[in-house]
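Here is an idea for our session: we take a single protein and study its fold together. Which protein we use is up to you, so please pick one and set it down. Once you have written the record down, we can walk along the chain together:
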Amino acid sequence: MTGHPPAEFALRVVREPPSLYVRVSGELDHDTGDDLVAAVTGILADDAEPVDDVRLDFGALTHIDASGLAALLLVHRLAAARGAVLYLDNRPDVLERLLHVTNVLDHLTGPAETAPGPAEAREDGEVTGTGSSG
């Protein structure tokens, strides 16, 4: 049986105080969820510039599983602990279905935005890879 290789996972992190923008590309699953949590945690832990909102852009998300959803729940918990609001923007059908089936959409987020992130923002970094090897 042949299948296509999974889309490469990538995070593009842009910090434009007081907001944090993270573009998630590829598959958010058991191999990559920790990468998302680590990226957000690293920024939220920086007390020098507080973050009021965390905007996760899923316009390039190709797949999400239960582990990916667990990562989103953890990001929500971390953001809320810092007083920040989590937004899940540009949600593809695969994410929308998962959020509705599990009934966590209202718990996780503020209203979604369909416009792209900041027009001119300082890029803090980009993380690419396939996650940890298990």
The chain is about 30% helix and 30% strand.
